[in-house]
Each structure stands twice: as structure tokens, then as C-alpha cells.
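Input C-alpha cells:
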């Protein structure tokens, strides 16, 4: 039996807000935490379907208010006359009706999508997420591509409508910056499947949010939030977002984020994007060159093969030491010194003039300044180039980059152009 802290049974029909304050921790809660707690209580409440005489259908728990009935719907409380309710269907009956419909609908992605809509309309939120998870799982390969089909488009449209199930009411009218930040904070370890997809869909369709998402994709300390920002940017139409996402495969400090960036960019990768990324081969930092090669290998576009072959022998050109300013450094100077008379000072002594010369020294020559770039680093970069070529061609170019051009000439054209035997 549920009891209060004093050991007494709780009062009948307690106020939900009172219940929140009574059973949550006594320390102050933030607005977001309080909204989340209230949302959890609302999600667990029993849903009822009320059919009115005028044809309307209200879903929510009802409370008598004299001659009126208050129905707590998802969008707010609705007051209707008590005698206007034609029929009330309890949650158990709603769930049974959903199960019967599911048995007759089959197990396709479209069937689960329709069942998810039905569960949402009848207030069965947990069943809704379950069916949307099943639909998304069947469309997973299609969702990773660049051309969604009609079922996936309908699923994404439905996910974009789930803002009331995901966000508290005050956040739905918040400015863009605050909305994006709060949505990103919802990406926790337990948020997966259709919930995660719905949050990303909200970010994708948030107006004028590109700059805010870019800032979080670079500066946010949370790995999952950076991944979510990149996933939203990849699908937003602003020009340059695809390049920004792919650059994360080079500059981000987390391997998980780098791998995610490559996965997102792969379906839309073309020769122009590969050429843009290849500029990283001339960067003075060895790490950037290595990550550039790894990203091009992960993209899988055949136009990267000749670029990697050409970059191999130049792996150590103009390379800055990976250890930065603390690396060994030295210089040597070759100088010639030549004395010359720059000017004369005139002195007068006993009615005579004496010229006192001013002598300067002219220096010429060269100074060579050297900073050590270890051979080990160059070998490491070359190893990344070689691994990417293996990934792109399923063939080992060998350890000597100077012979990679000969190896490239020996490959079948179907490998270097991306044509498969099936297409032939």
C-alpha cells in the first residue's frame, strides 16, 4: 500500500502536482527536471477514448466538474457537458482493439506505421513507440541512404508531429537557440530507436537552426549530442552542410563522432566532395593528413584512389612536427662580414682638419632553421594512406609509396571507376 513519508495513506484523488512534490526528492528541481517528472506521470496515466455526440473523439482521463466533464488531452484540458459523451472506452479495451488490428495487419513497415498512428490517436503512447521502433528497424537501410521511399517519408512526417510527446509545452514556443539546446540535451544513453529519430526530425525541421547546430557539432562536450547535431545538419538543405559534416571526420577528437560523420556523408559523397577533402593532404599537421586518408577510405568513392596514390610519396613534404613547439629545433648560419667606411667625422685641431672615418660591418649569407619531423610520423601517415587504398580497392598497394602508381595501372578499370561486374 502506498504511504506518505509520515506513514499515513495518501488522500483520495490527490492533486497530480502535489504528488510530484511529495514523492520527488526534496532538493530544488530545475524547470526541465520538473517538466520531465510531470511528463512521466502523464505518460503513465490511463488513457480513455471519449466519443461525443457531435462526432468528436477526445483521448485522455476524465474528471467530473459538476455538470461538466474535464478531459485531460495531450494538448490540454477540455471541458464538455457530461451528457454530450456518447461512449467511453477504457484503456484495456483500446489496447485489445490495437492488438486485434495488429494481428490482421501483418508485419510490414507500413503496417507498423499505421499501428503507431492508431496508438497515438488513442493515447497508447508506449504502444506507439513500440510500433514506430519496429517500422524504423525495417527501414534502417533505407534511412541510411539519400533517397527515402514513400513509407519512410510518411514515418518521418509522423515523427515530426510528436513534439507534444517529447517536449514540455513551454519549450514548444521557445526561441530557436533554446529549443535546439534542450532537444540536444535529451540525447541520453537510453534514448534510442524512434525516440531518437523523432528528436533528430525536430532538429532537421527547426527553422534557421543551422548555425546553432554547427556550434554544438564542434564545441559540445557530449559525444551523442555532437553526433545528433551532425545527423540533423546532414539532412538540412543549407549549402555546405555536407562539407561541414565530413570535416568532423578529420577534426573531431572522438573516434565515435568521426565514424558517425563518415556514415552520414557516405550516401551523398561525390567526386566534388572527395576533391574538397583531398586538400587535407597538404596540411602541415600529420594527424590531419592521416584522418583525411581515413575519411576518404570510409567514403568508398573510387575518385579518391588516384588522389591517395599521388599523395603517398609526398607524405612528409612540408610536415610540421606532431609534437608542436616542443619538438627538437636547431639552426646554422653561413655569414660573410665585410668592413666598410660609412661616413667621416671632421675634427679641427690647430687650424687643420682631420677626417675621422666611421667604420661599419656588412653581413651577408644565409641562416637555415630546422625542426625535426620524425621518420616514424611519416611512416604512420603512409600506413593510413595504404589502409585506405586497401579499403577502396580490396588490394594491397605495398609499403613503398613510390611504386603505387605502377600498382594503380595494374588494377582493373572497374575498380578505379566504381563499375561492378553486375552493371557490366
Amino acid at each position: 500500500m502506498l504511504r506518505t513519508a509520515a506513514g499515513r495513506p495518501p488522500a483520495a484523488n490527490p492533486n497530480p502536482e502535489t504528488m510530484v512534490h511529495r514523492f520527488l526528492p526534496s532538493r530544488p528541481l530545475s524547470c526541465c527536471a520538473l517538466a520531465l517528472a510531470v511528463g512521466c506521470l502523464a505518460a503513465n496515466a490511463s488513457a480513455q477514448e471519449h466519443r461525443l455526440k457531435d462526432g468528436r473523439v477526445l483521448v485522455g482521463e476524465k474528471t467530473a466538474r459538476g455538470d461538466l466533464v474535464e478531459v485531460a488531452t495531450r494538448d490540454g484540458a477540455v471541458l464538455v457537458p457530461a451528457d454530450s459523451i456518447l461512449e467511453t472506452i477504457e484503456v484495456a479495451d483500446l489496447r485489445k482493439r490495437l492488438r486485434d488490428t495488429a494481428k490482421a495487419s501483418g508485419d510490414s513497415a507500413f503496417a507498423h506505421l499505421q499501428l503507431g498512428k492508431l496508438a497515438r490517436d488513442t493515447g497508447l503512447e508506449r504502444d506507439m513507440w513500440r510500433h514506430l521502433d519496429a517500422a524504423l528497424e525495417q527501414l534502417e537501410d533505407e534511412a541510411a541512404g539519400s533517397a527515402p521511399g514513400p513509407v519512410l517519408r510518411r514515418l518521418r512526417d509522423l515523427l515530426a508531429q510528436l513534439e507534444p510527446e517529447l517536449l514540455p509545452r513551454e519549450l514548444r514556443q521557445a526561441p530557436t537557440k533554446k529549443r535546439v539546446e534542450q532537444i540536444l540535451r535529451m540525447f541520453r544513453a537510453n534514448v534510442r530507436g524512434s525516440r531518437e529519430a523523432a528528436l533528430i526530425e525536430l532538429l532537421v525541421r527547426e527553422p534557421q537552426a543551422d548555425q546553432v547546430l554547427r556550434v554544438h557539432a564542434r564545441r559540445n562536450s557530449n559525444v551523442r549530442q555532437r553526433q545528433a547535431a551532425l545527423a540533423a545538419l546532414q539532412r538540412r538543405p543549407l549549402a555546405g552542410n555536407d562539407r561541414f559534416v565530413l570535416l568532423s571526420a578529420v577534426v573531431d577528437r572522438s573516434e565515435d563522432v568521426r565514424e558517425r560523420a563518415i556514415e552520414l556523408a557516405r550516401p551523398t559523397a561525390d567526386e566534388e566532395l572527395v576533391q574538397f577533402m583531398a586538400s587535407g593532404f597538404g596540411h602541415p599537421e600529420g594527424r590531419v593528413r592521416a584522418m583525411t586518408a581515413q575519411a576518404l577510405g570510409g567514403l568508398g568513392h573510387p575518385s579518391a584512389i588516384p588522389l591517395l596514390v599521388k599523395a603517398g610519396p609526398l607524405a612528409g613534404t612540408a610536415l610540421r612536427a606532431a609534437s608542436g613547439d616542443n619538438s627538437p629545433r636547431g639552426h646554422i648560419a653561413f655569414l660573410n662580414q665585410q668592413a666598410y667606411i660609412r661616413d667621416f667625422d671632421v675634427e679641427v685641431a690647430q687650424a687643420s682638419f682631420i677626417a675621422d672615418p666611421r667604420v661599419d660591418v656588412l653581413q651577408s649569407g644565409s641562416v637555415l632553421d630546422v625542426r625535426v619531423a620524425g621518420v616514424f610520423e611519416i611512416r604512420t601517415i603512409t600506413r593510413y594512406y595504404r589502409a585506405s587504398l586497401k579499403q577502396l580497392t580490396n588490394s594491397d598497394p605495398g609499403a613503398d609509396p613510390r611504386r603505387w602508381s605502377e600498382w594503380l595501372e595494374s588494377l582493373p578499370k572497374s575498380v578505379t571507376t566504381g563499375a561492378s561486374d553486375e552493371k557490366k
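The longest strand covers residues 329-349. The CA atoms of residues 217 and 226 lie 4 Å apart.
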